[in-house]
Amino acid sequence: MRRIAIPLSILMATTACSTMQSGEPGMRGATSANGMISPILTSADAVDSSTYAQPQKARVTHVALDLDLDFADKRVGGTATLDVKAAPGVDTIILDDRGLKIASITDEAGQPLSYTVGDPQGDKGAPLAIVFGDARKIRIAYTAPAEAEALQWLAPEQTAGGEYPFLFSQGQAILNRSWIPTQDSPGIRQTWEARITAPNPLDVVMSGVRQGEPEDVGNGRRAFRFVMDKPVPPYLISLAAGDIDFAATGPRTGVWAEPSVLPAAAQEVGDTEQLVEAAEKLYGPYRWGRYDMIVLPPSFPYGGMENPVMTFLTPTFIAGDRSNNGLVAHELAHSWSGNLVTNAVWEDSWLNEGVTSYFENRIVEAVYGKKRAEQEAALAFAGIEDTLAEVGMDAPGTALHHEPGADELGSAITYDKGHYFLRTVESIVGRERFDAWLRQWFDNHAFQPATSQMFYDDMMANLVRSPEEAQRLKLHEWIFEPGLPSNVARPDPAAFAEVDAAVRAYADGGTLPAGYGAWTSAERMRFLDNIPKQRSAEQLARLDSALGLSKSGNNEILFLWLELALANRYQPAVPQAERFLSTVGRAKFVRPLFATLMGEGDWGQPIAKRIYAKTRGSYHSVTRGAVDAIVRGKS
Ligand code: BES
Ligand code: ZN
Question: 248 — phi, psi (to 5°)?
Fold first, then answer.
């Protein structure tokens, strides 16, 4: 058990746009674009071990990027101009730098400032210490090389159109330091602006509001301008560039995608306006203006990424029937949990992902109904149970708040246990009280970082009404202790009654489910998750031909099929898997498929190695890192 007993102290705090320097005794320095300076936390549980920054001494409040995208050399280069605030007597600021090629660092007037780059430490990169003296703006001229871990440069062949290259970034968790020199920590919020040039006819989008029309700057290039006037943690700065078009899905929502993908993408996210309305009804106004999305090429390493005003999505969620739209609800929900109230440290990422998974389920319930929401929640619960059965109820990594490095348990803890924590609290105090509490949590911590302890303290102060209720809630156990508390609000056992009966009938007598064709996507997934894992080639062939698994247009189903088939050394699935792994780079699919093959000894390992030799170069660094650890035994 670990209980952090440090009193919360929010220093350097000003509330949005009020008197600038209040609460910041002695701090001096430039004001960011609109005068909003976000507070930082100074309690011990808010110290980020993944950054070199020392924000109590000096911190970045605003980032202005002026960058050129160079597709020929796969480099991003230009300048980053940082506004700095510093405590009295402090003349040095430390930034995070992962492999940036720095040409010069000056003040605004062009006077050189001295700096040193320390020894790099793995993923954390290196400390970049700059002596700024009296300057309050620092200008760094630099290039992010082709290897920059956040960026993936795609050849035209890796796009749907096949004609133009594509570039996208992925910042979370600590990758943005490979292309933006700033303090890359979720507890240090910064406003930002950018001017980005790209060759015609490519379009650029960012997680900020595009300003006006692109401007012709000669040499066949255009400049795009963006502003994010709300302070955000820097992992949320993102960029994508390619041959993309836009389709509106509502007055304040829309989607970008390559022209050939756009119709299917727009059709799939056609409910987005309703999702935003449902979210607002639950937990208060959407505070970011527009909610747009971009559907990226299939090498995007995640299902989605909640970049503000521009959610990034994998195209693999497109199923034709909006059945994977929990993903959109999820990324949208992060506009509150994650982007508005942000985990101060990655050890508390359940505050982002767990709260979001709960919120996602509430949006799904509001828009798609109770049955679908309850089925999706039941799938999540099965994931928690599987993981706990595998690692044990005592494994320290199964606490919501866990130590660095214990985050290896996939999504079952941070996402699903976090989801079930809030579901349990809701079931005990009632929906009305719970919703009012969560809404005030978002309102009172808007544009600020938070820790597990703060969440706990806030529940104790503003939700819990009596010692008896506190006892029933087990808040401390839920947040700080491993395993699954006994008061968990289990999923409705009826959620999958028909499917579970069909699983038994198939397991017992090989009866294939007659109703499969009419099942929801969640029902199909439940069936494939729960049927016996050991299948003969004949049984697999029968299953595939009866249910059309290998031809499924839903990648979640196709993935479960491939996993089952490869685990049984089913040869006909090998070319299917090879095709899938050659285009899809989503780590959630790619990693387990390689792991399954590697688990199949003399049969699977040569297949995994052969396929990976061919596909490795087409993956983003996130996926490559995950698969390297499996196929090449590196970690
Ligand atoms: N913020 C995450 C993606 C992420 C997590 C990036 C950790 C880097 C480190 C995003 O919101 C997410 O959770 N995506 C899921 C969506 C799913 C749970 C609906 C995904 O990509 O599968
Ligand atoms: Zn998420």
Answer: -75, 145
